[in-house]
C-alpha cells in the first residue's frame, strides 16, 4: 500500500483498491470503514492499493491543470466526470499535480451494474476496465491508479470532506 502526504488532517482517509474495484472510506478508529463499489480504469495499475487523504480537485472537473497541486500532491483526488474532456486528460492533470490516485465521480450515467451504458465499449462484469476503447498509446506514461464511482457515492465522499456539493 502506498501512503500519502498527510497535509490536511481534516480530510477523510480513503483506499483505492484497484484489485477489488472499490474505494474504502476509513474511519479514524478503523472500526467503521465503508467499502464503496467502484470500477477500475482499464489503463490503471491493477494489482495494488493506494491509501491517502481525499482532496477535491480544483477545478472539480479536472479539465485543466489542478490549481491546488500543493494539497493534491501525495494524496488521492476526487474529480467529476464530464465536461467534454477525456479521462486520460484528467488523470494527466492529477498525475502532474502529484496525486497518488484518482476517484472519478460519475454525473449520473452509471449505476452499480457498470454496463456499457456507463462507459461505452466495456463492462465491469466481463472483467473490463472503463475506457477500454481508448488507444493504449494515449495512456503511455500515465500510471496513476484511477476508479470511477457512482454519483451517489461521489456525493457521499464529498460530504465526508465537509465540502458543499457542486
Describe the protein in words.
Helix content is 15%, strand content 23%. The chain has helices at 69-72, 87-96, 151-161; strands at 13-17, 22-26, 34-37, 39-40, 49-56, 76-80, 101-105, 146-149. It has an 8-stranded mixed sheet with strand order 3-2-1-5-6-7-8-4, with helices on both faces. It contains 3 helices and 8 strands; from the N terminus they run βββββαβαββα. The radius of gyration is 14 Å and the shape is globular. The mean pLDDT is 87. The longest helix has 11 residues, at 151-161. By secondary structure, the chain is α/β, with parallel strands linked by helices.
List keywords for this structure.
166 residues; alpha/beta; eight-stranded mixed β-sheet; 3 helices; 8 strands; globular
Supply Rg.
14 Å
Average predicted local confidence, pLDDT: 87
The helix tally amounts to 3
Proportion of beta-strand residues: 15-25%
Task: Classify the secondary structure makeup into a structural class.
Answer: alpha/beta
Straight-line distance between termini: 31 Å
Strand-and-helix sequence, N→C? EEEEEHEHEEH
Global geometry: globular
Low-confidence runs (pLDDT<50, min 5 residues)? none
Taking the sheet with the most strands, its summary is: 8 strands, mixed
Relative helix content: 10-25%
Instruction: Report the strand count.
Output: 8
The order of strands across the largest sheet is 3-2-1-5-6-7-8-4
Amino acid at each position: 500500500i502506498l501512503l500519502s502526504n498527510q497535509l490536511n488532517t481534516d480530510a477523510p482517509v480513503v483506499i483505492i483498491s484497484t484489485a477489488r474495484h472499490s474505494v474504502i472510506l476509513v474511519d479514524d478508529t478503523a472500526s467503521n470503514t465503508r467499502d464503496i463499489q467502484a470500477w477500475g480504469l482499464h489503463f490503471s495499475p491493477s494489482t495494488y492499493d493506494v491509501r491517502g487523504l481525499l482532496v477535491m480537485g480544483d477545478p472539480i472537473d479536472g479539465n485543466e491543470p489542478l490549481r491546488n497541486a500543493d494539497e493534491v500532491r501525495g494524496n488521492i483526488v476526487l474529480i467529476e466526470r464530464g465536461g467534454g474532456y477525456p479521462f486520460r486528460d484528467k488523470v494527466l492533470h492529477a498525475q502532474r499535480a502529484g496525486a497518488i490516485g484518482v476517484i472519478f465521480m460519475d454525473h449520473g450515467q452509471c449505476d452499480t451494474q457498470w454496463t456499457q451504458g456507463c462507459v461505452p465499449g466495456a463492462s465491469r462484469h466481463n472483467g473490463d476496465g472503463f475506457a477500454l476503447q481508448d488507444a493504449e498509446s494515449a495512456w503511455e506514461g500515465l500510471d496513476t491508479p484511477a476508479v470511477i464511482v457512482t454519483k451517489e457515492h461521489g456525493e457521499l465522499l464529498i460530504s465526508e470532506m465537509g465540502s458543499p456539493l457542486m
